[in-house]
Amino acid sequence: MSNHLLTSGHTACAGCGQSLGARLVVDAAGPNTIIANNTGCLEVFSTKYPESAWGVPFIHSLFENCAAVASGVEAALKYLGKKDTINVIAQAGDGGTADIGLQAISGMLERGHDILYVCYDNEAYMNTGVQRSGLTPFDSNTTTSPVGSQSQGNPRPKKPMPEIALAHGIAYVATASVGFPQDLQRKVKKALAIKGPKYMQVHVPCPLGWRHESSATYQVAKLAVETGLYPIFEYENGVLGAVRQIQPKPAVEYLKTQARFKHLLNNPEEIAKIQAIADANIQKYNLRLQASAAAGS
Amino acid sequence: MVKEFLEGSRAVAEVVKLIRPGVISAYPITPQTHIVEELAQIVADGHLNAQFVNVESEHSAASVVLGAVATGVRSYTATSSQGLLLMAEVLFNIAGLRLPLVMTCANRSISAPINIWNDQQDSVSLRDCGFLQLFAEDIQEAVDLHLIAYKLAEDKAIMLPVMVCMDGFILTHGIETVQMPSQEQVDAFLPAYSPLFKLDPANPLTLGPLVDPEYYMETRYAIQETMKEALGLLPKIAADFNKVFGRKYNGLIEKYQVDDAERVIVAMGSVCGTIKDVVDELRAKGKKVGLLKIASYRPFPAQQIYEALKNIPKVGIVDRALSLGSCAPLVSEVKAAFFGKKNAPAAISSFILGLGGRDITRDSIKEIFKLLTGKEKQGEFIDLKPELLKEKYE
To answer: Would you state the pLDDT for residue A292?
Structure first.
C-alpha cells in the first residue's frame, strides 16, 4: 500500500509531470483535504471507474467550474463549522485555468473563499491532443498553432495568469515547478496556512505534448526555470517575496530539449525573441544570482 | 398555518427559509431577482443560518450548489431564461451526480429577440437534463411544491434534483393570499437532509469519475428507472403533504371537470387558472368542457394522462414553448401517450400561445375551446397579430 494520497496504478503516461505535481501537492496538503478538479488529463488518468487513485475526497464536475464547485464545498464546510479543519483545493490544467475556467476563478478569488487553487501548467490542451491554450508559450508548435510557411507556431506569449490572480488582491500567489519538489511542497503548506484564496501555478512537463524523452521530465522542468523562461516566485500580500535565483542558461538550451521548439533551432531571429522573454523575466523578478551569492553557493 | 397576502417571490423565499438550506447561491436575472433578494435579506437579518454565495454567473451559481450538496448540505438556487440555459451544462451534471438539489425556475422566454416576459421555453428546453420538473399554477402551489420537491429529491430512492417552475411575473410578481406553513410543520414534513454519500475526509470518495462504455449506459438507465419510481412516489408524497397541510394535490396531474367533458384543454402552469375560470363560465352555460393540468412535466405522467383523456372526444394541448421545426413539446408527448391505444380522443389539437409574455385572456381560451372540433388543428398560434406578419425587410 502506497503512503501517497495520489497512489500509483493510475493511467498517466510515463514521465507525466502533472501526475508528479498533483502527488506532491496532495501529499503536502495531507488527508484532511477535499479536492475539486476540472476535466482534463489529471481527472481522466486518476479516476477511471471503478478505480480511483485518490486517497482524499475528490469531485470532478466539468471543464471550467472547479473554482465554483470548490466555493460550494467551502461554503458547505463553513456552514457545517468544519472549514478550519479541512483544506479545500481546486485544481485544473492550464486550459481549464487560463481559458475556459478563468471567470469562475476570478469569482472565487474575488469572493474571498478559503481555497487553494492549483494550476498544473503543461502549456497546452494535452488531454485532447496538444491544442494551444492561453498558457502555451510563444512559438510553440501545437496541433492548433502548427508550424507552416506562414507560421512559427503559437503567435502569442503566455497569458500572465499569476499577475491576473494577484490583481484580485489575494494574500498568496506563487509559481513552482516539479523540477523543484521541495520548494513546491513548502509553498503548498505555506499557502494552506493562509486563510482566504490562494493561487499556485505549477510547471509540469508533458513528454507527449512537448515531445521529449519520458525520462527527461525533471531535467526539462529544471531547465525552464534555469533559463528564466519559467520564473519561480511568490507574492505575499501583493509584495514579491522569495524568487528562485539562477545563473541564467541560454534559452536555446531549454528549446533544444523538446521537439515542440525544433523548428526554431535554425532560426536565430525567433530564438532571440524567446531569449528576450527570458531576459524580461530575469529582470522583472530579479532572478539573476549576484556574483558574491553565486560564489558562495 | 398563517394566511398572508404575499408576492410570489416573497412567498417562495419565505418557504425556502423554512426549508433551512445551508448554502444558497444565485446570480441575478429578471424575473427571479425578488426571490434571491428576499433570501439575501433573510440571511442578512439572521433569520436563516446559511451561506449566501453571490457568484459571477449562473454557471457558477449551479456549480456552487453542486459542490455544497456534494458536501452533504441542503442547498438552493433560482434562475430564469438565459440563466437557465447558461446553467444547462451544470444541471445535466448535477443530475448525473445524483445530487438532490432543488431550484426554482421563474419561467421566461429565450432571446433573441431579448424579452423578459413569461413563457416556458427555458425549462421545457431542459426537459432532458435529468431534473424533475414540477409546474406551479398559482403562488400557493409554488410555495407547496418547494416542500414537495425537497422531500422527493432527498428520498433515498430518488436522489435526483428537482426544478420548481413558476411563471415569471405572473407568479413571481403577482400577489395572492397564501397559507404559509409553520416552522414546526415544515420540520415535521421535511426532516434534515441526510446524504447517501458526501465529500468527507473520514471516508474519501471520488465523485464524478471517468466512466467508459463498460459502465456509462447503466448510469443513464438508472436515472430513467428512478424517474419511473418518482411517478409512483410523487402521488404518495403529495398525499402525505395533503394530510399535513390540507390540500388536494395528486402530484402528477389535476383533473378539473374532465370526467364528463366533451372538450378538454391540457396545459401547464399559471394559464391553468385562466382556463379554470373559462371552464366555470362555459359550464354555467351548459357546455361540457374541462381542464387537465400537468403538474409534473418530468417525469411525464403519460399513463395518468391516457387514463384521464381516453374517453374525451376532443382535446386541445396548450404549449407555451416550441420545438422549432417540429410539433410543440407538450403535444408530441400527449399524442404519444395514445399511440397504439384503442381508446383515444378523436382529435388532439395543438395550440401555441402566450409566447414572450403575450397576454392569455379568457377570450384566448374560449377561442381554443371553439376550435376544438372533430378536425385536428396542427400547431395553431393563438392571438397572433396578422398585421405584424406582413412587415417585410427590404
So the answer is: 61
| Single pTM value for the model | 0.97
CA distance B71 to chain A (A): 6
pLDDT value at position B165?
98
Q: How far is the C-alpha of A80 from the C-alpha of B73, rounded, in Å? A: 8
Q: Which three cell numbers stand for residue B214?
A: 463498460
Tens of pLDDT along chain A (297 residues) come to 478 999 999 999 999 999 999 999 999 999 999 999 999 999 999 999 999 999 999 999 999 999 999 999 999 999 999 999 999 999 999 999 999 999 999 999 999 999 999 999 999 999 999 999 999 999 999 999 999 999 999 999 999 999 999 999 999 999 999 999 999 999 999 999 999 999 999 999 999 999 999 999 999 999 999 999 999 999 999 999 999 999 999 999 999 999 999 999 999 999 999 999 999 999 999 999 986 655 544
Say whether residue A114 is in contact with chain B using an 8 A CB cutoff: no
Nearest chain A Cα distance for residue B217, angstroms: 13
| Of B154, B144, B165, nearest in space to B246 by CA | B144
Which CA distances in Å does B352 have to B316, B317, B389?
Answer: 10, 8, 16
Test the A interface: residue of B24, B49, B71, B200 with most A CBs within 10 Å: B71
A61 closest CB neighbour out of B75, B201, B208: B208
Q: Extract the C-alpha cell encoding A203.
A: 510547471
Q: Residue A296: its pLDDT value, please? A: 46
User: Mind listing the pLDDT tens digit for each residue in B224-252?
Assistant: 999 999 999 999 999 999 999 999 999 99
Q: How far is A36 from chain B (nearest CA, A)?
A: 8
* Among B65, B73, B209, beta carbon nearest to A48: B209
Neighboring chain A residues of B203 at a CB cutoff of 8 Å? 57
Nearest CA distance, B203 vs chain A (angstrom)? 7
Q: Choosing among A39, A77, A79, A100, which should be mutated to test the B contact, i.e. which has the most B CBs within 10 A?
A: A79
- A11-48 burial, b for 16+ CB within 10 Å, e for fewer? ebbebbbbbbbbbbbbbbbeeebbbbbbbbbbbbbbbb
pLDDT tens digits, one per residue of B284-295: 999 999 999 999
